[in-house]
Every structure is written in structure tokens, then in C-alpha cells.
Amino acid sequence: MHINVKDAGEQAVILYLDDVPTEQSIGQLKVLVEIIQEALDDDLIDTIPSYQSVLVQFNPLTTDHQRVSHRIQSALAQRRYNPPVHTRSQIVRLPVYYDVSVGPDLERIARHHQCEIEQVIERHCMNIYHIYAIGFAPGFAYLGHVDDAIAMPRLEHPRAQVPAGSVAIADHQTAVYPKASPGGWNLIGRCPSPLFQPQQAHSLPFSVGDRIQFMPISQQEFLDLGGSLDDV
């Protein structure tokens, strides 16, 4: 696997992997991040993996682009970077209340695919989704791949406000909105679990390379878990 290292601003470099994103290669990003963390140690500020790249932010007071690139390349050469086929990742199970009251696009998706709403829900739950990237908003994980039978393009006119916890589909990706925000994805349900808690030591319950499984729950279970039926 070939990796290109390029400058990305005053205190960052970005690593590009040549491969097309796959479930295997996304898992391999976790290994690459570990190598970078070991190579840069205290000079490292943060690593941000996404699809087939890793943004590396470093302390410009203690090092520079050239030394960072050299140390990463040396570490990769020493480790003979060739991640295993199966990389370690956790499965995070998220409860979801699927209903037209919180998933206003359910009926339209079912009509588009000429199926029942229950079939849309069943197909969404049957997959275990890989986290390809985290962005747009803190805790917003881009998950793939959604079954062809329920995939839907983004809305032509995005909503001005999407409620926190909304579970949505856009093309062959799915996601949960961690906070209320504008959004153009198709809403199919709502999750009561908090996905971004900055006050906690681990602000997110998952990372790139992990997997997500959605578990259908009743309205009462949703409310008992702290969910809200409000529109904002």
C-alpha cells in the first residue's frame, strides 16, 4: 500500500492512501493512526482519519513539516506497513425508534422503492455499518453501506433544523445527527443515545474503523432511554 504525505497548512500534514475505500482499508486506518501516534509522540496534537486519508496536526513550536514527514515515513518503513486483513474494531449498538412521527421520510422512501415502511426499517437494521469518517458536526459519523433497496438521494431542499438523534439516509450512507442542526438527509427514526459528550474523557462512543448496528425499540423504550419527541 502506497502512502503520500503532503503539507496541509502551517501545522499539519495529510497522508493519502492510494486504495479505493473498502471495509478492509477503513479498518487499516486505525493501524496507521497508531503508527503515527508512536512516531510523533509528544509532538502530535491530533490525528483525524477520514475515508482514505489521515490529517496529522503537530506542534509547530517543537517540530516542522519536514521532520514530521520524515519520522512518519521512517516509522512506516520500519513497521513494513502491511496491516492485517482483519483489524480490531468494536461494534457499537445504537437503539432507534423508527416511526413516521420522528422519521418523516419513511413513507416517501417506501413509496419510492415500492415497498412497505416495515421493510425499509428491516433493511436498515439488518446491516452492520462501518464508520468511514466523522465530520460535518462533532459526533456525526458517516456510515456505509446502505442497501440498494432503501438508498435515497439527499433532499433537494435541506431542512433548516433536524432534531438531535435523527437517524437518516443519504445515497448509500446513513448517520445519526448528534445535535440539532440543518440537514439534507432523509429522516427515518430517532436515537436516544448521546453521541457527543465533550465533558467526558472519551467524548465519542466510537471512532473511524468501528462498526454500528441499529437496534429497533418501541416508543416507550425510546422515552425511557431519555429520547425526545420534540421537533428541535
TrEMBL record:
Naturally occurring in which organism (per UniProt): Reinekea blandensis MED297
Pfam families, per database record: CT_C_D
Keyword line: ATP-binding, Hydrolase, Nucleotide-binding
All copies of domain Carboxyltransferase, residue ranges: 3-206
Keyword Repeat attributed: no
GO MF term (any one): ATP binding
Name under which the protein is recorded: Carboxyltransferase domain-containing protein
Alphabetical list of InterPro entries matching this protein: CT_C_D (IPR003833), Cyclophilin-like_dom_sf (IPR029000), PxpB (IPR010016)
